[in-house]
Amino acid sequence: QVQLVESGGGLVQAGGSLRLSCAASGGTFSRYGLGWFRQAPGKEREFVAGIGRTGATSYSDSVKGRFTISRDNAKNTVYLQMNSLKPEDTAVYYCALSDRYWWSSGPAAESECDYWGQGTQVTVSS
User: Fold this and answer.
1) Sign of torsion, CA 53 30 71 67?
2) Which residues have CB under 8 Å from 28's CB, separation 6+?
3) pLDDT in tens, 19-65
4) Distances (CA, A) of 43 to 2, 34, 110
5) How far apart are CA 22 and CA 97, in angstroms?
6) Strands 10-13 and 120-125: what pairing?
7) Which of 5, 54, 92, 100 is deepest in the core (most CB within 10 A)?
8) Hey, which residues does 50 pair with through a beta bridge?
9) pLDDT confidence of 3, banded at 50, 70, 90?
10) Which residues contact 85 (CB under 8 A, 6 or more apart)?
11) Exposure of 4 by Cβ count < 10 A (0-12 exposed, 13-18 middle, 19+ buried)?
């Protein structure tokens, strides 16, 4: 059974940066595709970024050029570096792992993910 634990959320001013981490336990981390999703109040959860086994990445248009997803297989951890944050980035951020969508840039939809973290709150003030 895989478990995911996010950390690194918090309150930041617009224009600032945060780095989210997601540590995995159980399973063989290097095999999996990984993703970050977010859910703002009153909205559905949406894709933010994904990374496949080989390190290929993909991003939603809303974060492209500002966010960077990366993985450290030796530490069983996936990261989301968030720069130039905007108030509209305020949301609960979730990491997700996919045992099925590991090729290319990993999962890009909720249905493609097999395990989820508990979420971490990111609040960007204007």
Assistant:
1) positive
2) none
3) 999 999 988 999 999 999 999 999 999 999 999 999 999 999 999 99
4) 27, 22, 14
5) 10
6) parallel
7) 92
8) 35, 58
9) very high
10) 12, 14, 15, 16, 17, 18, 66, 122, 124
11) buried
56 Cβ contact partners less than 8 Å away, ≥ 6 residues apart: 104, 105, 106
Mean pLDDT of 60-77: 98
CB atoms within 10 A of CB 5: 14
Rg (CA), the chain: 13
Q: Which two tokens stand for residue 98?
A: 């996919």
Buried b (16+ CB within 10 A) or exposed e, 41-68: eeeebebbbbbbbeeebbbbeebeeebb
